[in-house]
């Protein structure tokens, strides 16, 4: 997941760069002459480091699980992906879209429930693969081309347009259109549960 993992082959050489200054906002990027829909968007994008492996440019160089492992707002997701044994699966996937729950999304789950899910590899795998769509979905397609079939098999619905999207009716995209070497990532504020 765009924000998952790290395997023996992951790139962790720039881990000290994750405390860099915040990335420019979508409006700042748009005013620099680049189309806003070609760039990451959303309030939580400011938490992404401005340089290093966890920055937008750094994440674009790595496959999704490795890229996520370099992003400090996705550390709980990375732990879950490692626990489920999905690092290589996600890093090897081609042209996927990942709805990546932030640390704050996982914090909404009661601690006992989260511990139970993390201890149940089958359930954890179902939940995590439900966050992955088997095709790249652009922001322009996001609110209009669905529902989307997840790798878990269930459908994910998205409503909205521009820079305001909601997944499955209650999970907001807080930083979208983040590119990795093999995925488009949308950071979400609520963990999606398979339907």
TrEMBL record:
Domain FAS1: 61-192
Pfam family, one: Fasciclin
GO biological process: cell adhesion; extracellular matrix organization
Top-level lineage group: Bacteria
The keyword Membrane is annotated on this UniProt entry: no
InterPro entries in the cross-refs: Adhesion/Biosynth-related, FAS1_dom_sf, FAS1_domain
Region (Disordered): 1-40
Keyword Signal: yes
Organism: Cryptosporangium arvum DSM 44712
Example of a GO cellular component annotation carried by this entry: extracellular matrix
Keywords, ordered alphabetically: Signal
Chain intervals with Low complexity compositional bias: 1-32
GO MF annotation terms: cell adhesion molecule binding
Identification of the protein by name: Secreted/surface protein with fasciclin-like repeats
